[in-house]
Amino acid sequence: MKVLVATSLTQGARDNDYNWCIEGELVSVGEVCPRDREDPDGGCGCGRGFGGLSSHRATTTARVAEVALSRDDYAEAIRSSLEQQGWDPCLCCYVDEAEELLALVSDWHAGTVVERRLDELVVRALPHEHAGLG
Length: 134
What we know:
This protein is α+β, with helices and mostly antiparallel strands. The protein has helices at 71-84, 91-105, and strands at 2-6, 27-28, 50-52, 58-59, 61-66, 113-117, 120-125. The protein is globular, with a radius of gyration of 14 Å.
């Protein structure tokens, strides 16, 4: 199935890009804090970031990737990450988050690089545009 993973591809396209995730780790789209709520380029950076499910770090770029996971395994990865970060994930929250993330990327081809602008994901590069980039 297609999911979002951390990538360094297209990093630097914006002056305020950052990438502290592990390349290829699953990422999620978290809540935006009050500091960034009106401006994705605000001081915090959460309005433009994806959170790494393994590293618990963040990046401003994610890539659509085909991975060999079931829906249940994907939801479990989100649940486990939330629990590791000290949250008490309820069943509806992490299952809903998994379904929402899967729906967000369903129409994009694997290899598409996206950025976050608050509640919107925007295509930064299509697979053929970054072929050969590392």
